[in-house]
Amino acid sequence: MAGEPTASDTPWLDKDAEPLIRIKGITKKFGEFIAVNNVDLDIYQGELFCLLGGSGCGKTTLLRMLAGFETPSSGTIVIDGADMSQVPPYERPTNMMFQSYALFPHMSVEKNVAFGLKQDKVPNDEIADRVDDILKLVELQDFKARKPQQLSGGQRQRVALARALVKKPKVLLLDEPLAALDKKLREHTQFELANIQEQVGITFVVVTHDQEEAMTLSSRIAVMDKGEFVQIGTPTEIYEFPETRFVADFIGSANIFEGEIVEDGADHVRVSTSLGEIYIDHGQSTKMGSRVWAAIRPEKIHLSKKAPTKSGPNQAAGKVDDIGYLGNSSIYKIRLDTGQIVDVTSPNQIRPKSRTHGITWEDTVYLNWEPSSAMLLNK
Amino acid sequence: MFRQLARRMQAGWRSIVVFIPYVWLLVFFLLPFFIVAKISVAELVIASPPFSKMIEWTDSGAMTIRIVFDNFIYIFNDDLYSRTYINSLKISIISTIFCLLIGYPMAYGIVRSGPVAKKLLLFAVILPFWTSFLLRVYAWMGLLADQGTINNLLIWIGLIDEPIRMLYTEFAVYIGIVYTYLPFMILPLYANMEKLDGSLNEAAADLGSRPTNTFFKVTLPLTTPGIVAGSLLVFIPATGEYVIPDLLGGGNVLMIGRLLYNEFAANTDWPVASAVAIVLLILLVLPMTIYQYYQGKATEG
């Protein structure tokens, strides 16, 4: 991930690149309910791709169709050039890490990991070597003889990962891989998972509902809602350039104001909202007078107790309604004269001299933000 | 003060709760067992009750204890008894295997069916218990008799000319036992399979295992506790079964339950009947111990 981006880091921008997974027009219906609605997606070799969405958005159904546990109602899935429609799960070049881990309770860690290789009739000494190698990678070499129920949650998670990785699949599917871990362990494992992915070079497709997890892990994220992709892009694209209110609100938090375009220039727009006039210095193809939304991330609003020297766009005033002190930063809820609440996050970069902070409840404060900060949304 | 009292009362309640089953087992299982064991080492006398006393006091005040093993020696010497024991075990083992072969797929099917169908099917498994067991065996007599429903139907279709002899054969006894004890096989298997994580099958398939292989490597090992429980629940009562061999087997099928009844009621030989019962008990303690062992292992895991 570090270093200058090269063509191989962003294969999705290369028009000639052949995708490893090609999902075309996939629909899955359960009775009348449409779980996945006519989606198209290309995933490239070496990617760590996240399907992100709330519960019931269809992300797990899509993953299970890749694994072969669900049959698409229509559409095709091609993995490494081969159509998967008639291929049963046990013949697919994919392996899955289950949310429940699904470790075989009657087998030791070693037997669990070896299970997949035995099915492929790999010679016994090779099985032993590969199991040893993969257990070393997940740091479980000393737990070979244990049964799953004698392991901690984090260890089970690593056994499940090792069992899925040991077959060197073309694609590794991970269903909420970190959901069952506690917060600290989850944060640690996020980076570990990304490191392992880089080491083995296998394409990962991860399903998660946790946006932070998706942001840390992925090369690209597909945000899903009601069985459809709302936006596909890199973490930065998704966060800084959301295309819809849903994405802006789902990933991180955003103050969203409805407004009307009052000036539409080549390199800027002016939007009239209840927050006052918002000036945005990046042009967007919109019509004058059309209904739009402007979204501003809480951390991109500056907070000051000093009144601004001149009037203009991109500023507002209000009273501190509530403060959430998080230690490294604080969340301020600012009540405007209109009664509207605006969230502002501010890093606590300076340790206060006394035990009180500069800004406190019912203070009158002034908000301002950069012309580049607001995001213009059409829907 | 109050808290102490409450704690003491709680401790009292706890010991009562533990105590009741012990008393129950003692009065209704252990005590009768000792009475039967006592009679099995007595001698037949023409009296009421028809067996010799174990402890007697002579006129001089000395105590005599009489324990005779003649009944056991008699059982071991007369090959009628050994043949009957072996036949009983054979019939109950074969019946258990058939119950397992029929019950396992049924339990699996019930677990795999939808929520409504599952309730209906489970209900259907338990439903026969609502009719008297005796009545159901009599119904089988009506079905299996020479002039019974099945023979009449087959003759009417034209498949056979002469009725096939089914009633009063071992075949009829097998039918009766498998039919009667099938729910005792299905229910523990169902309870066991219901707990199985469905994603284990998916995980096996995902790792390249075909469905048959998955069954033998994953499903079967994980349902062993259910198989053991179901098999013992069928095997143990089937071995001592009396009504089914008597009604469906007539005099042609030797089973220990009938022999025991004959000794007890027809010959009024309580000591031999008791000895027959004790030997049967010893034969059955063995599988019970295996069951206990498996149960212990299951709760450990």
Write structural notes for this entry:
The complex is a heterodimer of chains A (379) and B (301). With 379 residues, chain A is α+β, with helices and mostly antiparallel strands. Chain A has two domains: 16-246, P-loop containing nucleotide triphosphate hydrolases (Rossmann fold, 3-Layer(aba) Sandwich), CATH 3.40.50.300; 253-377, Nucleic acid-binding proteins (OB fold (Dihydrolipoamide Acetyltransferase, E2P)). Chain A contains eight helices and 20 strands. In chain A, a hairpin with a 2-residue loop joins β9 (220-225) and β10. In chain A, α2 (109-119) crosses α3. Chain B is mostly helical. Chain B has one domain: Orthogonal Bundle (MetI-like fold). Chain B is built from 13 helices and two strands. In chain B, strands 1-2 form a two-stranded antiparallel sheet. In chain B, a hairpin with a 5-residue loop joins β1 and β2. The radius of gyration of chain B is 25 Å and the shape is globular. The A-B interface holds A 67-69, 88-92, 94-96, 98, 100, 102-106, 115-116, 119-120, 147, 149, 163-164, 167 and B 197, 199-200, 202-210, 213, 217-218, 221-222, 301.
Query: What is the structural class of chain B?
Result: mainly alpha
Low-pLDDT runs of chain B: none
Percent of residues in helices of chain A comes to 10-25%
The domain tally of chain B reads 1
**Uncertain ranges of chain A:** none
Terminal Cα span of chain A = 32 Å
How many helix segments of chain A?
Answer: 8
SSE topology string of chain A: EEEHEEEHHHEHEHEEHHEEEEEEEEEE
| Averaged pLDDT of chain B | 90
- Tell me the strand order in the biggest sheet of chain B: 1-2
User: Please, what is the CATH homologous superfamily of the largest domain in chain A?
Assistant: P-loop containing nucleotide triphosphate hydrolases
Q: What is the fold-level CATH name, i.e. the topology of the largest domain in chain A?
A: Rossmann fold
